[in-house]
Write a structure and sequence with these properties.
Helix content: 40-55%
Number of strands: 2
Strand order of the largest sheet: 1-2
Distance between the termini: 44 Å
InterPro entries: AB_hydrolase_fold
Number of helices: 9
Protein name: Haloalkane dehalogenase family protein
Order of helices and strands: HHHHHHEHEHH
Oligomer: single chain
Strand content: under 5%
């Protein structure tokens, strides 16, 4: 499926120039750079944690990686690094560090075809002391999809203004 097709699926309301804009930085790069929406699709950490953290440390894994070459394991290695970074970020947001910590408003497009379930997961990962009082369970942005800044820019601007005025 072409990159524009993926973008169309994720956000059917985007105009063609906006879709072209997302892929523009990658057009002239060689395929070997693996820079595009397709690369992101391969490195999203969906591989089970036991494989990313435990299995990768076994002798058998290291033998296979040595025999086949590490470039054949790029996607899994990148997934493992992203999963580790994700855990570090979750631990940081779960902690209640102090009164100077930033206030957070979790906002998701109600028509997001990919990440709808992640709104509640994200809200649960953030310590309640960080979340703004006016949106303790996050906000469903009516009519918003996967790219709410492009689809509902005025609504996002109002939310940012409300957050900044606290």
């Amino acid at each position: 499926m072409p990159e524009s097709g993926v973008m169309r699926f994720m956000s059917p309301h985007l105009s063609q120039p906006e879709i072209d804009g997302y892929s523009a930085p990658y057009r002239s790069l060689p395929i070997a750079t693996k820079a595009s929406v397709f690369r992101f699709g391969h490195i999203v950490p969906v591989t089970p944690r036991f494989a990313l953290h435990g299995l990768r440390q076994t002798r058998m894994w290291k033998l296979l990686e040595g025999l086949c070459g590490p470039r054949h394991f790029d996607n899994l290695s990148q997934q493992a690094r992203l999963a580790k970074r994700g855990e570090e970020v979750r631990q940081s947001w779960r902690a209640c560090l102090g009164k100077d910590d930033p206030d957070v408003a979790v906002v998701f497009g109600e028509q997001d075809p990919l990440l709808k379930l992640y709104k509640d997961i994200l809200v649960d990962c953030i310590h309640p002391a960080h979340i703004v009082e006016w949106a303790p369970q996050g906000i469903w942005l009516s009519g918003g999809g996967h790219y709410p800044m492009e689809e509902k820019a005025a609504d996002i601007s109002l939310l940012i203004e409300k957050l900044a005025s606290q």
